[in-house]
């Protein structure tokens, strides 16, 4: 799967060579981020729009023209979004051209944080300190509220701050601390106060799968013993929509699948 999961900070700090972005993980052309939508812009003639996304480490704009405008118009400030985008640069500003974008729940945001920490730790790269590692986000209410600097379309890109603290931790400690801060486990005397909705939210986190790119592709391919729709694959795999869509895209590119209408099936040998 080509989309590299990164914190925004390490995207905007990369060096763009007109085709790829040189990052701490090497060269990438397509990335996947999760963050809070904090600002939107739309021209009067509705031919161009941009969404500003903040993940607690930095902000980045997602820009759309013509056919993308209507697709991006359904998202609003405060939405928690999962985005796959091609990396682009204009006037010294690195931005994303949207390929896939969807709203997600705070619970899935928590899982992505754990996923990202695992990737960074395994790569021996410093993990940027994000709000989720310093305070507990709500499971079923609003995600952490960043305080971004609003950037207008007319303003020139300003140099990004490099002063945010970083830290390293063992994978076991990172996951343990994150789970502890996110679960809001009640004291014995308060267990009776845990609502049904809260229990459902915790179950959603426990059932949500975190798999590597190749594992996702193999899982999707393994389920396709007969023709299935994308929604069927999402339901049966327990993966999120974007993971399944990226896997299907890769399998189609490799010629292993055939798409007929809304249904996918393995290509005959």
Give an overview of the whole structure.
The chain is of the alpha+beta class and 269 residues long. The protein has 2 domains: 1-151 and 164-190, OB fold (Dihydrolipoamide Acetyltransferase, E2P) (Beta Barrel); 213-266, Arc Repressor Mutant, subunit A, CATH 1.10.10.10. The protein contains 8 helices and 14 strands. The strands form 4 sheets. Strands 1, 5, 6, 7, 8 and 9 form a 6-stranded mixed beta sheet that branches. Strands 2-3-4 form a 3-stranded antiparallel beta sheet. Strand 13 (257-260) and strand 14 (263-266) form a beta hairpin. The chain is globular. It starts with a strand and ends with a strand.
- CATH classification class of the largest domain: Mainly Beta
- Low-confidence runs of at least 5 consecutive residues: 134-151, 153-209
Question: Averaging pLDDT over every residue, what do you get?
Answer: 75
Largest sheet: 6 strands, mixed
Shape: globular
Tally of extended strands?
14
State the helical fraction: 25-40%
Q: Topology, pairings included?
A:
Layout: E1 4-5, H1 8-12, E2 15-16, E3 21-23, E4 26-28, E5 30-42, E6 48-54, E7 59-65, H2 67-72, E8 80-90, E9 93-103, H3 106-122, E10 127-128, E11 166-167, H4 171-183, H5 196-207, H6 213-223, E12 228-229, H7 230-237, H8 241-253, E13 257-260, E14 263-266
Parallel strand pairs: 1-5
Antiparallel strand pairs: 2-3, 3-4, 5-6, 5-8, 6-7, 8-9, 10-11, 12-14, 13-14
Helix pairs in contact: 3-4, 3-5, 6-8, 7-8
């Amino acid at each position: 799967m080509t989309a590299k999961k990164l914190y925004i900070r390490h995207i905007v700090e990369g060096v763009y060579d007109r085709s790829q972005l040189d990052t701490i993980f090497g060269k990438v052309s397509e990335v996947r981020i999760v963050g809070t939508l904090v600002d939107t812009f739309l021209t009067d003639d509705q031919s161009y729009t941009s969404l500003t996304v903040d993940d607690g480490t930095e902000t980045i704009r997602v820009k759309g023209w013509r056919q993308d405008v209507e697709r991006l118009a359904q998202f609003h400030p405060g939405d928690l979004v999962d985005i796959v985008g091609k990396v682009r640069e204009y006037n010294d500003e690195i931005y994303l051209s949207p390929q896939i974008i969807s709203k997600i729940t705070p619970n899935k945001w928590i899982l992505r944080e754990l996923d990202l920490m695992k990737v960074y730790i395994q790569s021996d790269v410093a993990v940027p300190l994000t709000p989720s590692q310093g305070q507990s986000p709500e499971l079923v209410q609003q995600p952490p509220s960043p305080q971004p600097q609003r950037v207008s379309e007319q303003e020139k890109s300003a140099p990004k701050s490099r002063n945010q603290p970083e830290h390293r931790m063992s994978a076991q400690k990172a996951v343990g601390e994150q789970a502890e801060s996110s679960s809001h486990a009640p004291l014995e005397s308060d267990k009776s106060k845990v609502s049904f909705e809260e229990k459902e939210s915790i179950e959603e986190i426990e059932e949500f799968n975190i798999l590597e790119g190749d594992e996702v592709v193999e899982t999707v391919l393994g389920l396709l013993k007969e023709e299935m729709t994308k929604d069927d694959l999402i339901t049966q795999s327990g993966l999120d929509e974007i993971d399944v869509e990226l896997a299907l895209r890769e399998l189609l590119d490799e010629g292993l699948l055939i798409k007929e209408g809304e249904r996918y099936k393995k290509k005959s040998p």
